[in-house]
Q: What sequence folds into this?
């Protein structure tokens, strides 16, 4: 074994020769927009992910926003975001297309689909049929409610799943002074239930490949992912709080500080991490000249502080009013406070720390004559770098190429 | 089970890291938590407390990491139970004791994976950094999970889930127009970061199987979040349309789901979500509401028209939903093919959701100190290799140090009296 030991603190360029965890693994993806994030992840790990599309393209190709707001199958930014790194194969509608699909699946290691049981059976892709014919195949179905249970045939988009899963009940603004909620529970943008389900699907596929190739299994299997169940398990302590106390957490926003430039900074109570943090914060506030009454030694006592928390909060507000958001964030962090400036999603692209970690990747879109910046690897693995060198595929771009390479004809 | 035979020496704590090894445990890996009696995992001693049978604990409102040390027992902290299913074992070892450190190196030598979620540099200071691990086990897969990761200018920054959520745009994406973001009330990124920690473990193992080489995989709480905003990131960078603009984020409105959003149902602060993505679904919704005359208004006949008059439409639909029980409304709508769902809280999921019950989402598990509770695991079903919330041992989360003797005798071949001697010397505290 060579090359495993490296100096951790030397910034090494990605080692292209190291190979990827999924070198040579072929994935066929037959999904709607709910599970495209799974294939994006498998592609990053090195799998050859082939997206099988009907002639008009996958549904996400018709979903906005579009490049320059002009619709077109190769212009959807929603499609770009979740299909980077994949190849696209178009198969015709009808029985010929189903034959083509089965030929591709027959040459693959993994099939990820979003078909309900009846539709999977109609297209000859139910595991009962595929299993015996293709014993090595891993089949992963990602559906709103899974392939069993009383809600198995119900309809859901991400919003419905965020509601049923519980995160929505816990997100939103607090009640008014009268205790009445005058705004609804809120779901985050970005299709988080779908992304959670897609991530769990990727984990399960990796585990199934491990069992097939390295563990005792020697064969593939069927994986049933319910986005509802995945969504239902993302709310941290809420179920435990109910089980332990009998009370249900009700929604309300976290405290924020408004900085001089209007930016908001998430600012947890400095005592949350322990009383020592207050001493660090006080030193910082004094340096910035806004400590005011907090310099009174009485505030060193956590009990006194808790009884006069308004003064602590007022000092933090004075600090906020004198600094812009980025600086306020860094001042808090310099005192060991877990503060963070609330950025819009794209503003993270300016983060020097993530830039230094080489996170953002420019991919060339030659047909547009331009490069586009994408969020890159979800972690740093110098021994097996995340693969991010292929822009999202044009519709049907790789139909002939894949047919040749995989040795399938239709 | 899928990961049978994989052994993980697990130094994670709190939510982010523990979520990763919970998943591995549910998939069958042997997860050995290395803990300390003097500095227990804060969530072992933080409220809410698992109650004595028949009594009630405190609410989460009182929880701070600071008052953690005041808990009566390291086995009552409720949040610990959320993140430590998967059949994890618990041993206590004093890493600052030379014999404790030596013991930990011996355990590394018989493990496939080391996981941890301390601040960057902590394991190095103990003498258990990656290079030390490699000395004990040349092909070790080492997955570190810390807020800002182990490389880069800001590694000293402190994060909780809400910090990372603010910095990566997730907080921003929850809110109503012309108000500060509402954000998330919980640490969504503890979960997402943990999922990516599990991906890292599996990626490291698969890569090792192909090449024979281990590696250090550096998971932060930031990178797993940057792609979660989907097209918003690209819309800003490619089209020059910033997310920070009037009217955005727009609560529960999404492109082409009108009518869509949370509607008041009967009862106090009870809500049902409806999300009509097609004209067919809108027609079905009208039929379920009994085809009221207002719904035939020409302005509502197309998606574009409905979007233009969304607020008026929402008010009219709420007149129907607010007369109905939220589950009844969901059932009526779903039977007609309209995407709809109750805004369920934790009690609803545990007690009223028939789908979670039918899928056995919760598993009753306890341990020597607490009664069985319905606990969560990895919510995926695998036909060939069962996913078990109780892990390979089919048991509940461990009490502190429950498995010290068993692990040291089984894995390192130590005699009981040797273990006792180490304990007497303070190496197992």
A:
């Amino acid at each position: 074994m060579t090359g495993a030991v490296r100096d951790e603190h030397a910034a090494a360029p990605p080692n292209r020769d190291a190979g990827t965890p999924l070198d040579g693994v072929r994935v066929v993806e037959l999904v709607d927009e709910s599970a495209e994030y799974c294939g994006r992840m498998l592609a990053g790990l090195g799998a050859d992910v082939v997206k099988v599309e009907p002639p008009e393209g996958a549904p996400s190709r018709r979903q906005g926003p579009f490049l320059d707001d002009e619709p077109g199958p190769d212009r959807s930014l929603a499609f770009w975001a979740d299909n980077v790194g994949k190849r696209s194969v178009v198969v015709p509608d009808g029985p010929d297309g189903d034959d083509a699909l089965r030929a591709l699946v027959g040459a693959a290691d993994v099939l990820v689909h979003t078909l309900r049981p009846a539709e999977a059976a109609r297209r000859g892709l139910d595991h009962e049929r595929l299993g015996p014919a293709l014993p090595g195949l891993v089949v992963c179905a990602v559906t709103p409610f899974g392939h069993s249970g009383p809600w198995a045939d119900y309809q859901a988009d991400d919003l419905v799943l965020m509601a049923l899963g519980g995160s929505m009940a816990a997100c939103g603004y607090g009640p008014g002074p009268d205790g009445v909620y005058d705004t609804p529970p809120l779901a985050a943008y970005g299709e988080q239930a779908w992304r959670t389900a897609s991530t769990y699907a990727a984990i399960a596929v990796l585990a199934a490949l491990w069992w097939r190739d390295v563990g005792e299994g020697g064969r593939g299997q069927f994986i049933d992912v319910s986005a509802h169940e995945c969504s239902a398990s993302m709310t941290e302590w809420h179920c435990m709080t109910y089980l332990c106390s009998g009370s249900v957490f009700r929604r309300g926003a976290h405290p924020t500080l408004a900085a001089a430039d209007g930016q908001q900074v998430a600012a947890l109570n400095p005592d949350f991490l322990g009383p020592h943090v207050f001493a660090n914060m006080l030193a910082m506030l004094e340096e910035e000249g806004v400590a005011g009454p907090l310099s009174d030694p009485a505030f060193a006592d956590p009990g006194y502080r808790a009884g006069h928390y308004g003064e602590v909060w007022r000092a933090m507000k004075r600090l906020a009013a004198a600094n812009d958001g980025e600086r306020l964030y860094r001042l808090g962090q310099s005192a060991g406070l877990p503060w963070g400036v609330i950025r819009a999603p794209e503003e993270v692209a300016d983060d020097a720390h993530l830039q230094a970690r080489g996170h953002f990747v420019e991919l060339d879109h030659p047909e547009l004559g331009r490069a586009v910046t994408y969020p890159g690897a979800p972690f740093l693995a110098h021994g097996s770098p995340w693969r991010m060198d292929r822009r999202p595929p044009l519709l049907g771009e790789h139909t002939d190429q894949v047919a040749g390479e995989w040795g399938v004809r239709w | 089970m899928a990961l049978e035979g994989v052994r993980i020496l697990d130094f994670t704590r709190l939510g982010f890291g523990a979520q990763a090894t919970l998943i591995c445990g549910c998939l069958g890996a042997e997860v050995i938590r290395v803990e300390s009696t003097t500095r227990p995992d804060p969530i072992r001693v933080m409220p809410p407390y698992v109650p004595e049978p028949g009594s009630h604990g405190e609410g989460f409102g009182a929880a701070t990491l600071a008052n953690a040390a005041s808990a009566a027992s390291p086995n009552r902290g409720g949040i610990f139970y959320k993140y430590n299913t998967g059949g994890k074992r618990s041993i206590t070892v004093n890493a600052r004791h030379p014999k404790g450190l030596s013991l930990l190196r011996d355990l590394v030598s018989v493990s496939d994976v080391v996981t941890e979620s301390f601040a960057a540099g902590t394991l190095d200071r103990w003498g258990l950094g990656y290079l030390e691990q490699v000395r004990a086990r040349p092909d070790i897969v080492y997955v570190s999970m810390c807020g800002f990761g182990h490389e880069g200018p800001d590694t000293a920054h402190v994060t909780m889930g809400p910090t990372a959520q603010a910095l990566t745009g997730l907080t921003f994406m929850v809110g109503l127009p012309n108000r500060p973001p509402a954000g998330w009330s919980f640490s969504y990124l503890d979960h997402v970061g943990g999922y990516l920690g599990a991906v890292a473990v599996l990626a490291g193992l698969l890569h090792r199987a192909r090449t024979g080489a281990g590696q250090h995989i550096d998971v932060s709480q930031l990178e797993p979040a940057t792609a979660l905003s989907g097209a918003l990131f690209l819309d800003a960078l490619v089209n020059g349309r910033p997310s920070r603009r009037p009217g955005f984020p727009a609560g529960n409105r999404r492109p082409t789901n009108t009518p869509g959003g949370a509607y008041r149902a009967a009862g106090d602060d009870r809500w049902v979500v409806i999300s009509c993505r097609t004209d067919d679904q809108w027609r079905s919704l009208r039929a379920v509401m009994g085809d009221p005359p207002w719904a035939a208004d020409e302005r509502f006949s197309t998606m574009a028209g409905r979007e233009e008059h969304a607020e008026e439409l929402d008010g009219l639909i709420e007149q129907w939903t607010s007369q109905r029980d939220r589950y009844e409304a969901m059932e009526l709508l779903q039977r007609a093919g309209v995407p709809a769902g109750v805004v369920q809280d934790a009690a609803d999921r545990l007690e009223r959701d028939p789908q979670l019950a039918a899928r056995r989402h919760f598993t009753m598990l306890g341990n020597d100190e607490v009664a069985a509770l319905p606990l969560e695991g990895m919510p995926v079903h695998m036909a060939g290799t069962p996913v078990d919330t109780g892990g390979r041992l089919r048991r509940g989360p461990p009490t502190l140090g429950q498995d010290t003797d068993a692990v040291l005798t089984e894995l390192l071949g130590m005699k009981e009296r040797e273990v006792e001697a180490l304990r007497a010397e303070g190496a197992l505290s």
About this structure: Chain A has two domains: 16-236+361-406, 264-341. Chain A touches chain B through 171 residues (CB under 8 Å). The longest strand of chain A covers residues 48-53. Residues 1-14 of chain A have pLDDT under 50 and may be disordered.
